[in-house]
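Bug report (template v2)

What were you trying to do?
Predict the complex of my protein with fe (ii) ion.

What happened?
Run completed; filing so the output is reviewed.

Input:
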Amino acid sequence: MAASATTRPASDSLGVVVEGLDLRGGVDDTLAASLRELFTQEYLLVFRDQDLSDADHLAVMEALGPVAWEGLPEKRAIGFVSNVRPDGTLGTSAASFHIDFGFFPEPYHAISLYGVEIPPRGTQTHFVNAVAAAAALPAELAARLDGVQARQAVDVTSPAGQAGVRVREGRLDETYPHMLRPVLWPHRVTGEEILGVWEQHTDALYAGDVEMDADESTALIEELYAFLYAPRFRYVHEWQEGDLVIWDNHAVQHGRPEVGDREARTLRRVCVGPEQDLSLFAGRRVT
Ligand SMILES: [Fe+2]
């Protein structure tokens, strides 16, 4: 990190704010190594008061790994979460907590958003520290998760991001994208356990490879959500123009309330990680 840079906690629950660093003009090898180390330790980084071009933003994310291609039908590395841009995703919708592409084998590793247009009345993104939650699980509850897997599924026929979906209704067609992972999912780099259930996509729990009774499964998912989504594991980012927020898409979940359409809200998005097969979503909006 540059000698002038300092960090302070972004909240009691998650992340750090990095101060004294101007990210314009590229990232040299020393800074890239420092960013990777800090990101691995903290899982969420906030940089305020930046003035980043597309190229600047890409350079920061390239320091963390290969940038992911997004978009259909054209592949592009830059995307937008926006309620005004025709090429933006999400529109005005709320998004319940999720990780991006958790229903595929290897979801994006890191996601970043940069504040381009922020409503004068403010706007938020909500984050949840699923590593801290796993570490804090009561022993009795953790013991019940031994050998338990969660199924993450997506319904490709309806828009994602329905707000307030606490436990998904019903079971989805087996042909839809879905993925079974341990509920206590080891982080790909640190090995720390992640509490791997999220309200937008988790539709069933399995004991080993056997799907649990639906009522038993739902009751345990609800118990886990009550623990995971408590305020102690949340960080609410209050956006300002020029903010860059980068988070680990496995360790940290994200979501947001509805944003309305009276004030423009545009966040520029660059992700790091393996390419995802988006062909199933052609012509549909996904998060
Ligand atoms: Fe998302």
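What did the reviewer find?
The mean pLDDT is 90. Residues 98, 100, 254, 287 surround fe (ii) ion (CB under 6 Å).
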